[in-house]
Amino acid sequence: MGLRTAVSTSTGLAFAALQYLAAAGLVAYVAGDSAWISIGVAGVLALLAWGFFGELNGMFPTAAAIRRYMSGAMDDRVALSVTFTYLSTIVLVVAADAFIVSAALTHVLHVPGWLTSVWTLALLSIAVLSNLRGVRAAGWLQDVPTTVVLVATLVVSVVALTRSGTALHTPLQPLHHHSGAGFLESIALGIFLYSAFEWVTTNAEEVRDPRHIHRSMLIAVGILFVVCATMTTAMSHVLTHAELSTPYPQLALGGRAFGTVGVWFMAAVTAVTALNTFNGGFITASRFVYATAREGSLPPILARLNDRAVPWVPVVGLGVISFAVSVVVEMVGGSGWQVLVAVGAPPRGADLRRGRLLRAAPAGPGS
Amino acid sequence: MATAEEIAEAYADWQERCNVNTRLARMLRGWDRTVHLVATDTGEGFTIAVSASVLSDLRSGLVDQPDLVVSATSEDFADLFWGDLNPSEKYLSGEIVLAGSSEDVMRLDAMSMVAFLDQ
What we know:
Chain A is mainly α. Chain A is built from 13 helices and no strands. Chain B has helices at 4-19, 22-27, 74-82, 87-92, 102-117, and strands spanning 33-39, 45-51, 54-55, 59-60, 68-72, 97-99.
């Protein structure tokens, strides 16, 4: 794995379809086009996490580093609990992405709403089956979806912004008609925009040069800042409150930029983000569950392998749980995805806490 | 600390278990790889090749370009091949270090597990 693939992996892990919703939600908490400030503050916090994870990777370049460091910093059972809380976020994000993509397709195709669950089931089934068959995308094939999604989002945002007039309204006044608490909320959502960029550390054994990992994380934070700041600025300029409140604000943004073609284009882009999320989410979570079961900390059934050396029980389990959660989100209605965003943010904070603990108790390989 | 002879003896036992295991043969289909073993305490290196679902004999020295590099103490290598050690536990504790693709790591772990589960 070269630096380019490491960057796309780090950025792709963070940039899920849920990103569009978090960006739209963030716009509501601060005045107009000053959302970039919240994203910038969150970016600085992400850089703190980058420092910790960079150190971790430098001292211990292996996928097991997170587990190793956490068990060195706290009681093993507590470490395992925290890690599984973090893993549950992956399930929630996969479920949310499946729901968002399905809702977007239902909206674009003008088909009955109940079909959303069918789309979700189909998408998750494809993800589970391809995982069970051990299908792996080549490095360059992992780069393409991430690049397409980021460039498309950036272009659509810039075009939409240009069409609305480029003059900024309140670029330096986040509290204009808004409260300080709202600003803090927006920073929390901003943190979510960077969430999971550090999971590229689990690829430490696959890179040609271990330094690629911490370099890629730094570049990914920069890319995420530029794309997300541009996107929120465009959203604050061209979308109505009602459009910002839908599960698919990116479709409206595409519509403002390129009309009907833009809506379809952003629907396709949303579907591509799901490829990244499902692929990364299922592989990361299932392999971690497998390794923990092999270690003896989880029931042995979770370590069962199929003939392609894939831990099939965790993969199927993650698929079923993700589908169940997405159905619940759909039943809850419009606020369902907001719950997922809210639940998704805290584990990112846990990263920072973990980073501090790790720094307090560094441990080298084999020590 | 285990000697090269002790590691070779343990490996020969593991190799036999693996090569007669029909399930493992299915799992290794199409997975032709060269694996280097590096004993961190003695500095010795060994090479294993997997070809057509069959494990080769253990060769002394680091031969050919590896797909996977496993670093551990000589004692851990011997224990691993005898089945006295859980490689996942050692891996997660940082005592066994791997370099290679995640798919290759999974296959290697599958070999260590299935060889003993199906006996």
